[in-house]
Design brief:
Largest sheet: 15 strands, antiparallel
Radius of gyration: 19 Å
Structural class: mainly beta
Number of domains: 2
CATH class of the largest domain: Mainly Beta
CATH topology of the largest domain: Jelly Rolls
Strand content: over 45%
Number of strands: 23
């Protein structure tokens, strides 16, 4: 027997400064609410003048993955494993820090010279204990390779970054099974997303509004869902734009210190020691 998911609670966002000083909208207390996701930052949208754009200079990570999805603007990436590249609108960078990586995320030259709008997301995905010290890896996926699809009526559009939607499979390889879908609904449109029954699922609205089983989710709200094998959403009068995120409950202790996410305090101390001694990303 199928069971529809409902919104059990709505977590509001607050604005904070990250990296070199860029503004992000972040759901409050998310890391304590929704395994396997540790963080969801909506970067901007913010309009920069010439010379104003900021990013995140070199900084370390260990024990989890960072997912950067750019909607507008331009970023450039470089890391201690020798990877580098540009992130343009629609592109995704899926970086598995594993045992350790040091990287930077900075505005592209054209953003520094001319200014412009920067908007996107960074999501932190936790790794199970058995994978926290895996070899780092980096997936740089251009927008042209990320599947996009629509329903027959053209009222629902989806970009399938991870998982499956409207019969389309993602191309990105994930360590644990993850759903990450960018969805746009026209006013009054209805969409049903199938869900793994044992996964945590949430919806983050960043444009318009929607309803799930009669409960509203407005712009800037993170809706945590009940258990079930599907969720049906209906867009409001101005349509809706949102992310669908889902993944397994890891059920493991979390020890967290800034850019390090491990299972014990001793593992955090070791991460700091490795970083200070210069052996962190060896």
């Amino acid at each position: 027997m199928s069971m529809e998911r409902t919104i059990t609670s709505v977590v509001p966002t607050h604005t904070v400064l990250e990296g070199g000083g860029f503004k992000v909208r972040r759901p409050a207390a998310m890391g304590r609410l929704m395994s396997p996701f540790l963080l969801l930052d909506e970067m901007g949208p913010v309009d920069y003048g010439p010379g104003e754009a900021v990013g995140a200079p070199m900084h370390p990570h260990r024990g989890f993955e960072t997912v950067t999805y750019l909607l507008s603007g331009g970023m450039q990436h470089a890391d201690s494993a020798g990877n580098s590249g540009d992130l343009d609108p629609g592109d995704v960078q899926w970086m598995t820090a594993g045992r350790g990586i040091i990287h930077s995320e900075l505005p592209q030259d054209h953003m520094m010279e001319n200014g412009g709008r920067m908007h996107g997301f960074q999501i932190w995905v936790n790794l199970p204990a058995k994978d926290k010290m895996m070899k780092p890896r980096y997936q740089d996926i251009p927008s042209s390779e990320i599947p996009e699809t629509s329903d027959d009526e053209g009222t629902v559009w989806a970009k399938v970054i991870a998982g499956r939607a409207l019969g389309v499979e993602a191309v990105i390889d994930t360590v644990i099974p993850i759903t990450l879908i960018h969805l746009r609904l026209k006013p009054g449109a209805t969409y049903m997303q199938a869900c793994e029954t044992d996964h945590n699922v949430m919806l983050y609205a960043f444009g318009g509004s929607l309803k799930v089983a009669g409960k509203s989710l407005e712009d800037g709200g993170l809706g945590l869902l009940s258990s079930g094998d599907s969720v049906t959403m209906t867009a409001g009068k101005k349509g809706a734009e949102l992310l669908i995120l889902g993944g397994p409950e890891l059920g493991e202790p979390i020890a967290r210190y800034g850019p390090f996410v491990m299972n014990t305090r001793q593992e955090i101390y070791q991460a700091v020691k490795d970083y200070n001694e210069g052996t962190f990303a060896a």
